[in-house]
Design brief:
OB fold (Dihydrolipoamide Acetyltransferase, E2P), 7-stranded mixed β-sheet, about 25% strand, binds S-adenosyl-L-homocysteine, alpha/beta, Rossmann fold
């Protein structure tokens, strides 16, 4: 079949599903579920913060008191067991047609799992400093110093900064008066090593009493291994700019995950739930059944985590990722772990796979972990041409995954296992690993 024809059929079949970040729609909005409980599900570019849930009746006695105001969680009206039911049904709805869906790998203690915590800072008229998340689509900050999802140490550091900053003549930036410095604080915790990074996002590189402030924080929290000042004057929706000044330490922290070390910089992509990430990666790598002889592709590899962890069990690994900074982190990470059988390429995954397919190259196992928008027909067709024995497709969006799988089935693959993993308890997001073999 001609490529254009195939693309047209594919698009027609899936005209209601999500194709790219630009086309993000309220894909599974449900007006009413039961007993006056409402889901308001909107796909958002940055899915962390969403619309506040004013209409929701909260039946979970352990729900966060700020749940209705804050947009960070979407399912706290339910107990965790009910959330898992909801997510299992969601995965079944989209993926059961391809095979049996295994029970979700859930979290034993689904709280305080976020190893990356960000907080917006502002000063009220009466001089009180508030810190927390923006209520979606507003400029109001919900003061969330006891968020149930955040790493406790990270919350404590932010709370301390909020309480003590004025002693150092540091105040939140006030855009109306043009006074103050701090817009956001970002804290990242490497849970495998205990190292902590603090990023002060300010409007200018000059911070009053910076040396004393840094000394104060480091002596209060010896786990802090680096403090970075990120200068961001823009309102482009991005929290961090490229302009950084290291105030203390090396400017990055090192984490240990699944036996390997990883460098984390302020802006690195790194999974936010370390406990579940271990389960996700180990399950995905186990499913690949590597014997040590395989040539492996890790497509959409980020900072190289999956490929690096799998490299001991493979002959060669090739990681492909669009983001050049992530690729330089991935190369650094390979050296940090003294891994010699891995290579990383900064390229569009589709372009790279097309080129490999045109050169008649082969691979034995393909890991693919695309962003929410999923993969592309060209990528999937090239994957079919490379003819790996196994494809392990990891996705954080069941809809785009359900859109992509039939193309691989048409190309001669059979779904062997569908394993959801709850990476983001209390939010409506769910990660799914699908393992397919070539028939
Ligand atoms: N596997 C990694 C990252 C997964 S997130 C991990 O577990 O940490 C998806 C990654 O795909 C992101 O790093 C993003 O930068 C990358 N990406 C997005 N579009 C891409 C494209 N067209 N080609 C290659 N990589 C892409």
């Amino acid at each position: 079949m001609k490529k254009k024809q195939q693309q047209a059929i594919y698009e027609k079949m899936h005209k209601n599903t999500v194709y790219s970040k630009d086309a993000i729609k309220p894909a599974f909005r449900r007006p009413k579920v039961s007993n006056n409980m409402y889901y308001e599900d909107f796909y958002d570019d940055d899915f962390e913060i969403e619309k506040p849930h004013k209409k929701i009746k909260v039946v979970n006695p352990n729900a966060c008191p700020l749940y209705k105001k804050c947009g960070g969680c979407q399912l706290q009206q339910f107990t965790y067991a009910e959330q898992i039911d909801y997510k299992q049904n969601l995965v079944n709805k989209h993926l059961k047609k391809f095979g049996n869906v295994s029970p979700i790998i859930s979290m034993a203690s689904p709280y305080n799992y976020r190893n990356k915590v960000q907080s917006a800072f502002a000063e009220e008229k009466n001089g009180r400093i508030i810190a927390g998340v923006y209520q979606s689509r507003t400029k109001h900050i919900v003061d969330t110093h006891r968020c149930m999802l955040e790493n406790k140490l990270a919350s404590k550091i932010i709370y301390t900064i909020k309480n003590d900053m004025k002693d150092f003549k540091i105040t939140p930036f006030n855009p109306y008066k043009g006074s103050g410095q701090i817009r956001h604080i970002l804290v990242r915790v490497a849970e495998g090593t205990g190292e902590v990074m603090v990023v002060l996002v300010c409007v200018s590189p000059i911070l009053p009493n910076a040396k004393h402030f840094v000394r104060h924080l480091v002596s209060a929290f010896p786990q802090i291994k680096t403090i970075v000042l990120n200068v961001n004057k823009d309102y482009d929706g991005l929290m961090l700019s490229k302009h950084e000044k290291v105030l203390y330490g090396p400017g990055y922290i090192i984490d240990k995950l699944c036996g390997k070390k990883f460098r984390i910089s302020s802006d690195s992509f790194y999974q936010v739930n370390s406990i579940q990430t271990k389960k996700l990666y180990n399950t995905a790598i186990d499913m690949a059944g590597l014997s040590g002889k395989e040539n492996v592709i890790d497509a959409y590899c980020g900072v190289g985590t999956i490929g690096i962890i799998a490299s001991d069990k493979a002959n060669r690994v090739l990681g492909i990722e669009l983001n050049k900074d992530a690729i330089s982190d991935a190369k650094y990470n390979a050296q940090l772990n003294n891994i010699k059988n891995i290579e990383f390429v900064a390229d569009d995954a589709t372009d790279f796979m097309l080129e490999m397919a045109n050169n008649n190259e082969r691979c034995d196992v393909l890991f693919m972990d695309p962003p929410r928008s999923g993969s592309t027909p060209d990528f999937l067709n090239s994957a079919i041409k490379l003819a790996p024995k196994k494809i392990v497709y990891i996705s954080c969006n069941v809809e785009t995954q359900a859109r992509d799988i039939p193309l691989l089935i048409d190309g001669g693959y059979r779904v062997q296992k569908i394993q959801p993993v709850d990476m983001f308890p209390h939010t409506r997001h769910i990660e799914v690993i699908i393992m397919m073999t070539r028939v």
